[in-house]
Every structure is written in C-alpha cells, then in structure tokens.
Design a protein that fits this description.
By secondary structure, the chain is an alpha/beta fold. The chain is built from 8 helices and 5 strands, in the order ααβαβααβαβαβα. It is globular, with a radius of gyration of 17 Å.
C-alpha cells in the first residue's frame, strides 16, 4: 500500500468511526425543538465563520426551501456585516446584527464551529458574544462543534459533538459532518415539507 492509499484509508476509516459516535439523541432533541419553532413562526439564525459560514448559508437554503422555516445567516449580508466590522469591530458584529433582527424567545441560534470559540485565545469571540446575547434573549440555542474544551460546548446543552480521533483532520471532518447532520435534520419527515428535486 502506498502513502496516498494509507492516508485515504485512514481518512475514510475516521469518517466511518465518527459517524458511529454521533449522539443521535441530541439530533432528535434539536429536531423536536425546531418543529416547535416552526409551529410558532420562529426564525433560525445559522452562525459560523470560514467554512462553517458556507455551511450556514447552505443550511439557510435547505431549511427555507425544504422545511419552509424562516432562516438567515448574518454573514450573508456582506454589506452590513463588513460595515459593523469596520465601525464597531469583529467581536460584536454578529450580536449587533441579532439585536437589529429583534431576536426573541421563539427564535433559535444554530452555531456551526470547529473549535467553538475560546475567550483567552481570542478565537471566534464574535460567536461567543452571539451565544451570550442569545441566552440573554432566552432564544433556543443549538450547535455542532468538534472540541469539548471550546466555549460553545461548555456553555450550551444542545451541542452536538463531532468526535474526531486524529486532530490533524479536525477541520475537514468536522465541517463535513456539519453538512451531514444538517441534511439529516432537514430530511426528517417531522420537518420536511417539500421534496428535493433529486
């Protein structure tokens, strides 16, 4: 077996192992909460940065089109988010967006993050501030992360952990599983209203 084959075998073995370790009970609980949010005309704000923001945009599309739930990704409004970063700073950019959106108790924040933020290291502080604001507004809070030591995992009950053995692959595998889990949620018959084209 050559070096490339060894890497690929190990990588896909890790995906198979991770898939078996995902907490399905937490996914089920999130689906039940989202069903209630939908019934009460609440909104979901999908929040992530980097590759996780791309997954958040994809989720907005799927949850709106497939499940008929009003959803937004704050970073999709590049003009507003860049103005907030420029005028007030990166750390408050998302929480200020949520304030203007009149975030409430019928709404939800759904965080997508590899590490889940770290105050001391000043990593993803904008996500941490958004989480704090969501709690202040008594909103529902969901998350998918890959690190137990991150702020979001430590400070939010309904957080799905993506367990990864080889930390060298934490970003590609966790961001891939964000999409896998979100697709599972929108495909659940309790939420899905409209069939996919293919």
């Amino acid at each position: 077996m050559n070096i490339k084959e060894k890497f690929l075998n190990k990588y896909f073995d890790e995906i198979a192992t991770t898939s078996k370790l995902i907490n399905l009970n937490k996914i089920d609980e999130i689906i039940k909460k989202i069903k209630f949010i939908k019934k009460n005309k609440g909104r979901i704000f999908f929040i992530g940065v980097g590759g996780s923001s791309a997954n958040a945009s994809h989720a907005v599309n799927d949850f709106r089109k497939i499940c008929s739930i009003e959803c937004y990704n704050p970073l999709d409004n590049f003009s507003e988010i860049s103005a907030r970063i420029n005028d007030e700073g990166w750390e408050s950019s998302i929480s200020e967006y949520l304030k203007t959106s009149n975030l409430g108790k019928n709404d939800a924040l759904f965080f997508l993050s590899v590490g889940g933020g770290d105050i001391k290291k000043k990593i993803s502080v904008n996500l941490i501030n958004a989480l704090k604001y969501g709690k202040k507004r008594k909103s529902n809070i969901f998350a998918i992360v890959a690190r137990k030591e991150g702020y979001i995992y430590k400070n939010n009950k309904l957080t799905i952990l993506i367990p990864i053995g080889d930390k060298k692959n934490i970003t590609p595998i966790s961001e891939s599983f964000q999409s896998v889990i979100l697709h599972a949620i929108v495909s659940d018959t309790r939420l899905q209203e409209n069939k996919t084209k293919w």
